[in-house]
Amino acid sequence: MEYRKATKEDAEEIYRLVQDTMTAIYPKYYPAEVVDFFCRFHSRKSIVTDIDRGTVHVLIRNKRMIGTGSYEDNHITRVYVDPDFQGKGYGSYLMRMLEEEIARRYDTVYLDASLPASHLHERRGYRTMKHERLQVENGAVLVYEIMQKNLVPIA
User: Fold this and answer.
1) In this structure, are residues 110 and 125 in contact, taking their beta carbons and an 8 Å threshold?
2) Which of 43, 44, 24, 27 lies closest to 140, judged by CA?
3) In which region does residue 48 sit, left (phi positive, over 0), alpha (psi from -120 to 50) or beta (all else)?
4) In the 3-class helix/strand/coil scheme, how is the chain assigned residue by residue?
5) In this predicted model, what pLDDT tens digit does every residue of 73-117 receive, in sequence order?
6) What span, in angstroms and rounded, lies between the C-alpha atoms of 142 and 152?
7) pLDDT per residue as tens digits for the range 30-79
8) Integer-rounded Cα radius of gyration of the chain
9) Which residues contact 39 (CB under 8 A, 6 or more apart)?
10) What's the first-to-final CA gap in the chain, in angstroms?
11) Which positions ≥6 away from 85 have C-beta within 8 Å?
12) Cut 0.90: pTM above it
């Protein structure tokens, strides 16, 4: 297994991984308008911008990208694992690696947790700080949690 910083050459594969994961998982929790909002939010352009910042990482297994994770400052922003590889610890591994990077500069980390992920983050020690609602198209509402975790600083 390889965990590494993403390059521009990875952008399209990251985009496909994120989009495929959202369209496979999110319809179980959110109406179509919210899924569409997420898909637009995690656009090719936003992924390339984050790659240029140097804050996107990928997880490769047997030459296949199975996960990705991003952060900005102490905010974890985009963690997705291919649905075929979910429930096997890869998401926890990505989170641990991102938290270690953030812990070099910050003593807390936060994230915006989608409904399908909030219980997973609770198991990792995150606590809900705030419940958020965002109205999207056709009166549909995106509900999510802002969660925070204290980190042990890494020198």
Assistant:
1) no
2) 27
3) alpha
4) CEEEECCHHHHHHHHHHHHHHHHHHHHHCCCHHHHHHHHHHCCHHHHHHHHHHCCEEEEEECCEEEEEEEEECCEECCCEECHHHCCCCHHHHHHHHHHHHHHCCCCEEEEEECCCCHHHHHHCCCEEEEEEEEECHHHCEEEEEEEEEECCCCC
5) 999 999 999 999 999 999 999 999 999 999 999 999 999 998 878
6) 32
7) 999 999 999 999 999 999 999 999 999 999 999 999 999 999 999 999 99
8) 15
9) 19, 22, 23
10) 25
11) 61, 66, 67
12) yes
Residue type, 15: Y
Chain position carrying tokens 């030459």: 63
Tokens of 29: 């929790």
Question: Which tokens belong to 10?
Answer: 């990875």
